Amino acid sequence: xxxxxxxxxxxxxxIEVTVIDDxxxxxxxxxxxxLSKADPRVHVVHHGARRGYGGAVRSGLLSGTKEFIFFTDGxxxxxxxxxxxxxxxxxxxDVVLGYRLKRxxxxxxxxxxxxxxxxxxxxxxxxxxxxxxxxKLFRREVFERVPLGSxxxxxxxxxxxxxxxxxxxxxxxxxxxxxxxxxxxxxAKGQQPKVILRAIRDLLRLRLRLWGLPA
Length: 215
Hints:
This protein is an alpha/beta fold. It has a single domain (about 1-210), classed as Spore Coat Polysaccharide Biosynthesis Protein SpsA, Chain A. It contains eight helices and six strands. It has a four-stranded mixed sheet. A two-stranded parallel sheet has the order 1-2. The radius of gyration is 17 Å and the shape is globular. The N and C termini lie far apart (about 40 Å).
């Protein structure tokens, strides 16, 4: 959070930093609240009960009030200063999607991600280089044109469903490579069997809906 407050003014004079506390059981919520009291640019959204990864991202995107909305995870696997790579590519498009140039995750995680990205490419007739890369920049008007209520998943499939929905609506997107770093905070949960099964369920439901079949 403090990194964001230090770095983001390089890119805009008027910023806000929104922290989503998705039912955390550690001191994340209190730390964020204390920082919010000390700096009016920080806003904290607390979920009384966990909504899942997609639910947290959805809350953050809906909370944005500025012309541009940028989101990233809090596990420090990205350098916020690399936002410059996205801002440099925003002209002429509505969304800039980061993709990890060299993913710094364990082999099993990289393999699951490789399969997942290719399944999406086949199932939805075209995919993205790194659909779950948590380094994305949006024009806020995108979510006025395509309300997030049309994205049903609140789990790990949220990012993929959102991008597929935006692409089908004619939203212009560009992909840009960004550095990726070893995790130094938090714990990865995306490889848990229940998370994977829920993502598969949501993927199949979206595919059926787009075919006009009951889901």
